[in-house]
Design brief:
With about 350 residues, the protein is of the alpha+beta class. Helices cover about 20% and strands about 30% of the residues. The strands form 4 sheets. It has a 7-stranded antiparallel sheet. A hairpin with a 2-residue loop joins strand 16 and strand 17. The relative contact order is 0.14.
């Protein structure tokens, strides 16, 4: 079993996916059963009945309570057992672990750690999502058969787009442009500028750029499982590198990752752009992103397969890996800090 940061908000599903019926999701190697109650609030329980460990997701809803499909025990939204058929006294241990949840930016977020520390103000937020001048387009929940940190590697790495995404997000003009990175308070920032070069295909198609441009790529990684890529394009010489973004096309490609287990990740992705478009254009843009992210999926799954087949293989580090090293160290430090806190509680 892999180790995970637990005292954090993870995305677990699109809000649109959770209805007044039982839905199972898996996260950090635990199965969770979810539904909306009569007030429209999302409820999330560990998907195990405390009697015989029957998955509650195989039961049914009775009002706002889950009824286990094996012996009919019923549990309310707090996880408390409220009925046992044929038995009046309810044992103290007849309760289900319930997880704090919060809906934000079109997603259901879940807290798998110490519930007392679940501060909803700490859920990730991007201010452009709420700005009416920006256009928000929800994408998919892409399953990738690899550990989530391998996807984080990919999303802290601007250099790969020059080789992997030549029909969408990259071109050869950036092959030799160095990558910069630095630690931030909550993760890692990786960036580079490509000056006076052809626009990438997605900006040629949706931005109408036919002459050389200045373009930027800022990869904002927030530990442990969020990556938001700010990338944009302006005509060369209009001052974009100096901060003038008045005449540019800018997009935030957002990746909200669910660590399912050590072999599986769900990437909830959306794009947020500084121009409005009709449904047809938005669908075409989503198709371009879908093409690019599936290219990443192929590569990451192949890497994961080799990692499992050759566990003792020693990889070669390059300068461009500095951001990835910082990312991994950040996650490791968060895990170690939580372990130390748990040990201190046990020792007290």
């Amino acid at each position: 079993m892999a180790e995970y940061v637990l005292n954090t908000w993870y995305p677990i599903a699109w809000s649109r996916e959770i209805t007044n019926s039982l839905t199972q999701r898996r996260i950090v190697e635990k199965d969770v059963v979810m539904y909306r109650n009569s007030l429209g609030k999302v409820v999330a329980h560990l998907d195990i009945c405390p009697h015989r460990m029957m998955p509650l997701s195989l039961g049914r809803l009775k009002g706002d309570a889950i009824q286990c499909g094996y012996h009919g025990m019923e549990f309310d939204c707090s996880g408390k057992c409220v009925r046992i058929p044929g038995q009046e006294k309810i044992p103290a241990g007849a309760k289900v672990t319930t997880y704090p949840v919060h809906e934000h930016m079109g997603l259901v977020w879940i807290w798998m750690g110490d519930a007392e520390k679940a501060d909803t103000s700490k859920v990730y937020d991007l201010k452009q999502y709420h700005d009416p001048a920006w256009d928000v387009v929800e994408g998919d929940a892409l399953r990738i058969d690899c550990g989530y940190l391998n996807l984080c590697d990919n999303l802290c790495d601007p250099s790969h787009v020059s080789f992997v995404h030549l029909t969408t997000l990259g071109n050869a003009a950036s092959e030799d442009v160095p990558v910069n990175s630095e630690r931030t308070e909550d993760g890692v920032l990786t960036w580079r500028w490509v000056i006076d070069a052809p626009a990438i295909p997605i900006f040629q198609k949706f931005g109408g750029f036919t002459t050389n441009v200045d373009r930027w790529h800022y990869y904002h990684y927030t530990a442990p499982s969020i990556a938001v890529i700010d990338f944009g394009t302006a005509k060369t010489g209009t001052g974009a590198p100096e901060g003038n973004r008045d005449d540019c096309v800018q997009i935030y490609a957002c990746h909200f990752m669910t660590p399912v287990d050590e072999n599986t990740t769900i990437d909830h992705w959306m794009h947020i752009k500084n121009f409005k478009a009709d449904d047809k254009t938005n669908a075409e843009m989503s198709a371009s992103f879908r093409e690019a992210f599936n290219e990443d999926k192929v590569i990451l799954e192949a890497i994961h397969k080799n990692e499992r087949a050759y566990p003792d293989f020693k990889t070669t580090m390059l300068n461009l890996d500095a951001s990835v090293v910082r990312m991994r160290r950040k996650v490791d430090s968060m895990i170690e800090e939580e372990k130390a806190e748990r040990q201190a509680v046990k020792a007290a």
